[in-house]
Structures are given as structure tokens and as C-alpha cells.
């Protein structure tokens, strides 16, 4: 019946709703010429994914921390380079964050 979004089980940032929202926001922000929310450098909205200046959609509050994946106010434009610098994952840390050895 009802589908209360469960905080303990956040929706994954995928699926057609996500793709639609992403395309909508990308088109809107491209018109506005919105820059990266983190480094404030211009975003190349036409760059293919994987390019450092390519557009990525970032959750301000990660869904793993209760952020709503499809809420526009929880989303911002971030360049690919900043996004990957943040770890490009929710609650997942880059392997570089884990020291492999420790000198005591
Ligand atoms: Zn950036």
C-alpha cells in the first residue's frame, strides 16, 4: 500500500526516476551555467563521463546518512574530478584512506 521510504533502507541512486531527474537537473544547470559546487570551476556539461570537468550529480547529504536520493534540494552539480576526490561512493572510503601498515 503505502511506500514509506525507510531510513534504514535508502533507495539506491539508480533507476529511471534517478536518470530522469539527473537529465532534468543537468539541462537546467547547463542553461544556468552552474559551476562545480565544490571547486567553483566551470563544468563541461558536454564532456563525456570520466572527463575531469564532466558533470556529475552529487548528494549533499549521502543517502547512507539519511539524505533523500531524489530530492532536488539534496543534490548539487559537482565536477567529476571533485566527485572522484570525495571517493565517489556513499559511506565507502577510498582505499587510500586505509593505511596498509603502521609504525608504532
Ligand atoms: Zn569541482
Can you describe this structure?
This protein is α+β, with helices and mostly antiparallel strands and 104 residues long. It has a domain at 19-87. Helix content is 22%, strand content 10%. It contains two helices and two strands. It has helices at 16-32, 80-85, and strands at 55-59, 75-79. The protein has a two-stranded antiparallel ribbon with strand order 1-2. The protein is globular, with a radius of gyration of 16 Å. Bound molecules: zinc ion. Zinc ion binds at residues 36, 38-39, 41, 78-79, 81-82.
Describe the structure concisely for a colleague.
By secondary structure, the chain is α+β, with helices and mostly antiparallel strands. The chain is 22% helix and 10% strand. The protein has two helices and two strands.
Percent strand: 5-15%
Hetero groups in this structure are:
zinc ion
**Unreliable spans:** 88-99
Find the count of extended strands (DSSP E, 2+ residues): 2
Strand order of the largest sheet: 1-2
**Overall pLDDT:** 81
Count the helices. How many? Answer: 2
Identify the overall geometry.
globular
Order of helices and strands: HEEH
What is the straight-line distance between the termini? 57 Å
**Can you summarize the main beta sheet?**
2 strands, antiparallel
- Give me the secondary-structure category: alpha+beta
User: Radius of gyration in whole Å, from Cα?
Assistant: 16 Å
Helix content: 10-25%
Amino acid at each position: 500500500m503505502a511506500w514509506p521510504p525507510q531510513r534504514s533502507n535508502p533507495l539506491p541512486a539508480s533507476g529511471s526516476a534517478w536518470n530522469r531527474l539527473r537529465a532534468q537537473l543537468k539541462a537546467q544547470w547547463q542553461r544556468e551555467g552552474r559551476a562545480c559546487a565544490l571547486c567553483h570551476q566551470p563544468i563541461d556539461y558536454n564532456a563525456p563521463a570520466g572527463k575531469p570537468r564532466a558533470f556529475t550529480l552529487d548528494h549533499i547529504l549521502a543517502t547512507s546518512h539519511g539524505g533523500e536520493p531524489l530530492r532536488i534540494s539534496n543534490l548539487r552539480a559537482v565536477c567529476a574530478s571533485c566527485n572522484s576526490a570525495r571517493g565517489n561512493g556513499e559511506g565507502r572510503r577510498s582505499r587510500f584512506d586505509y593505511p596498509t601498515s603502521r609504525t608504532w
